[in-house]
Fold these 2 entries.
Entry 1:
Amino acid sequence: MVSGKYSALTGAVSREQCMANIAANLANVNTVGYKKASASFESLLAGARQRGEAKGINYTRIRENLAEFSPGPIIETGNPLDMAIPDDGLFKVQGPQGILYTRRGDFVLDQDGTLQTSNGLPVLDESNGLITVPDSSTSRITVNSLGEVAVIDAEGNSSTAGTVGVVTVDDTSKLKRETDTTFSLAADGRETVVEAPRLVIGSIETSNVNMTEEMTRMIDSLRTFETYHKVLKSYSDLSQKQDELGSLG
């Protein structure tokens, strides 16, 4: 009976973790470039060990939390610094501890003319350098689909300030979710520079979270959690009855 209790307990804990994922997804349904989180379940014991040691009782847990990199809807903003990647690819930004990756493309210029994300992370070029626009207050800025940032001065002269770096990662499971919409790449992960990214300028990619789908998942997970809770209560009641019977005589 104890095995059954712990099986129900591990199931309840897993569903609670799944609910936390869903809550994070719903909280970021309007976050630019956000990639929804999904949970991958696994059995703690398998095959002969499950039949033998666990007597057929299945113990489960969250194997890993994955980010789904399916594209989100692209909406037009009219801001010349906003960029969206229509295909596979990631922007590179400078994080506090090193290079990070993101699909968030609502870029701005800071007071020094450095291109950065709206949450303050500098955007990197193809060589991991910063992109700085000189005299940004008096120049007109244009960006083409290759990510080339050009500056046009008052006389109409054009000069390139830099090219926004876009890369693909050979295995997205090597990407670890960090703060906001950023990811870090594991040491054994490999990136490849996209030579012609075909960026959509003046547009941003919104979150790929489907609110209706997440609400359905939330209701299903909540009901499953309640079922596990009822099972645990039943085991608790049975244990109490056993204790009462054991004290007779």
Entry 2:
Amino acid sequence: MEFSGLIRKRRSVRAFKEREVDDSVIREIFEDINQAPSAGNLQSFVVYVVKNVKIKKMIAEAAYGQDFIVQAPIVLIFCADKKRSARKYGKRGENLYSIQDATIAAVYSILSIQDHGLSSVWVGAFDEERVSSILDLDKDIRPVAIIPFGYPDEEPEFPGRRSIEEIFKMFDGNDK
């Protein structure tokens, strides 16, 4: 699919069919995620892949009862690897670049998922400590996004967007 069409078609889906995703498709999505740019090409993130229903239920509870997480056949949890980035960039790497790396990778995931005829939703509302505990994460690994995905069982309406003029502000420095 053409990129502009892909991003305009994508919607946050919170209802998934009871249909498994083929391992070869999952592998292609992982390959796409692996192409995400990162600070210093460090790829200072790790992605946890959850298929186990019991674990998905725990994640949904940690995400304040967002039960559609359980319904998705696959849940990706994008985590910043703070130590990996800090080795090269210090505190800025630990507190910013690692988070940016993980979120850029998460964006690549939702675009690749869409391109493969599947759907996803970005979940940012969750108890970080509970998710860390469920996944038994090291203190230097920080969960930043949960992406449940699978075959959609709904077609959400276009939610609308702010106007281009409202978002983009021309700045040429002449106003100072």
